[in-house]
Every structure is written in C-alpha cells, then in structure tokens.
C-alpha cells in the first residue's frame, strides 16, 4: 500500500470512529419506553372475565399508585374478556372512573430522567361510546395539569371503545419524574362512567448537548491524528511504509 494512502486510510477510519462516538452521545435512534407497565397488562386479570377495582393508595397495578378523593372504588383494570371492551394496546386498560366518579387516577413510580433532556409523553384516551366523551388530566411531578379530551364517538375496530392517541414533548427539570393521569369532568366533555387510559409511554427524544470538555477531548483527538498524519506524510521519524519499515533517510542499505 502506498504510504500516503495508508495514512489517509488511517485518518478516514479514525474519523468514522469519532462519528460513531458522536452518534452514540446523541442517543439511540429508537428509544425504549421508560414507563413500567404503561399498557397496564400487569397484573393479568383476563382469566377472571371481569374488571378488578383498586382503592386509593393501592400499588396493586404494577408500577403505579392509585389516586382518588375517597378511600375506596378508585379505578379498575378492565380486561378485554369483560364484555369485549378492548384496550388500545394489549388485553387490558384502565377505567379512571372506577364504578363512577371523577378525580381518580394513577401516579407512576419514579422514572430516572436527565435534566435538560427532551422526552416525549404519549398515551391513549378511551371513550366507552354509550357513555360519551372522556377527559383526563396529565401532570408531571405535581406540576400544572394539561387536559386531553377524546371527542370522537365514531365506531372503531375496538368498538364499543373508541381510543385516541395524545402526546407532548417535555424537557426534564428533575432527575426523578412521576407522571399522573386523572379522570376529569371538564364541563360536558367528559362522563363519570368510563374514562379509558392505555398505552402510556415516556421516551427519550434527545440527549443534552455534550459537555465542552467532551468536545475538546474529541477535537483534541482529531488534531492529534491530523498532526500524526502530516508528520508521517513528511517522512518524520515515526513514518513507516505499508510493511512497517522506516525510511532510510538517505543512508545506504547493505545488500545481501
Ligand atoms: Ca393495555
């Protein structure tokens, strides 16, 4: 191999390696769901062919704590084996009204997040069509609540349930994050007999920008490679040809 070409090849490979490192620092291409049991498939209650109620304060829904204004009858897991009421994902979903009522919900277990990093929150709101539209409120770490209403009562593949997806981006301001989902009245845009929740996710959108020291390290490494390449191209003391033989610098070689 031509020595100059060998040096260029080494620099090219090093550049590819640096690009790979930068890509890794930017985060994975497809991020995993950080919410534990966001589809409410655990515990599996499908065998009972009926919904299962959880009282305020219960941690019986894996990954979540039940919220409610009264001690009993807060929310329930509904399996699709109960009157064919299908979730939007998997076989189970949450009815945030319990038997009846508003202001009941679920609070996620703490999720590790990185301050300054952007995430995407998504979830599905379900209407039990005979009862009407459903509204739920979403808050992060007890902050301001946003209301989301599924206004569609059209028949769907999950009839008599109608599910709609919602979401928003959020930049973390804490290293520990808890999401809450609560059924709300919201005027005439909700009902107190069926507010569905399913398919909750929190996914990483981007990592924070690397610290200046990280960039300096990378740029310093690139500069070192470039200097080494120039030194070898000029036939410096470190130069080797493709066989690893140093140049003779004008000295005569003894022939055998
Ligand atoms: Ca589900």
What would you note in describing this structure?
There is one protein chain. This protein has 256 residues and is an alpha+beta fold. The chain folds into two domains: 3-26 and 210-233; 46-206, Jelly Rolls (Sandwich). The protein has two helices and 13 strands, in the order H-E-E-E-E-E-E-E-E-E-E-E-E-E-H. The strands form three sheets. A six-stranded antiparallel β-sheet has the order 1-3-4-13-7-10, with no helix packed on it. It has a five-stranded antiparallel β-sheet with strand order 2-5-12-8-9, with no helix packed on it. Strand 8 and strand 9 form a beta hairpin. It is globular. Residues 39-41, 87, 89-90, 92-93, 198 line the site of calcium ion.
CATH homology group of the largest domain: Galactose-binding domain-like
Specify the overall morphology: globular
Class of secondary structure makeup = alpha+beta
Number of strands: 13
SSE pattern: HEEEEEEEEEEEEEH
Mean pLDDT, all residues = 82
CATH topology of the largest domain: Jelly Rolls
Helix content: 10-25%
Please give the domain count.
2
What is the radius of gyration?
29 Å
Distance between the first and last residues' Cα: 25 Å
Strand order of the largest sheet: 1-3-4-13-7-10
Strand content: 25-35%
Return the CATH class of the largest domain: Mainly Beta
Instruction: Give me the number of helical elements.
Output: 2
Which molecules other than protein and nucleic acid are bound?
A: calcium ion
Major sheet, described briefly? Answer: 6 strands, antiparallel
Give the oligomeric state of the chains in this entry, treating copies of one chain as homo and distinct chains as hetero: single chain
* CATH architecture level-2 label of the largest domain: Sandwich
Q: Which consecutive residue ranges, at least 5 long each, have pLDDT under 50?
A: 16-24, 235-256
């Amino acid at each position: 191999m031509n020595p100059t070409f060998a040096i260029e090849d080494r620099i090219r490979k090093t550049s590819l390696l640096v690009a790979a490192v930068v890509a890794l620092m930017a985060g994975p291409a497809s991020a995993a769901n950080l919410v534990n049991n966001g589809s409410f498939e655990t515990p599996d209650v499908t065998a009972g062919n009926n919904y299962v109620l959880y009282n305020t304060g219960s941690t019986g829904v894996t990954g979540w704590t039940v919220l409610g204004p009264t001690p009993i009858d807060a929310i329930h897991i509904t399996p699709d084996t109960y009157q064919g009421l299908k979730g939007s994902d998997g076989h189970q979903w949450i009815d945030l009204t319990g038997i009846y009522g508003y202001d009941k919900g679920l609070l996620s277990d703490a999720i590790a997040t990185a301050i300054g990093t952007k995430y995407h929150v998504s979830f599905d709101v379900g209407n039990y069509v005979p009862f009407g539209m459903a509204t739920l409120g979403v808050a992060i770490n007890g902050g301001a609540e946003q209301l989301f209403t599924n206004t569609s009562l059209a028949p769907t593949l999950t009839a008599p349930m109608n599910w709609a997806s919602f979401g928003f981006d959020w930049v973390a301001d804490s290293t520990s994050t808890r999401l809450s989902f609560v059924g709300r009245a919201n005027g005439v845009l909700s009902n107190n007999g069926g507010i569905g929740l399913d398919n909750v996710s929190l996914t990483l959108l981007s990592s924070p920008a690397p610290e200046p020291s990280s960039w300096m390290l990378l740029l310093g490494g690139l500069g070192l490679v470039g200097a080494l390449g120039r030194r070898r191209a000029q036939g410096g003391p470190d130069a080797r040809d493709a066989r690893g033989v140093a140049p003779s610098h004008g000295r005569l070689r003894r022939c055998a």
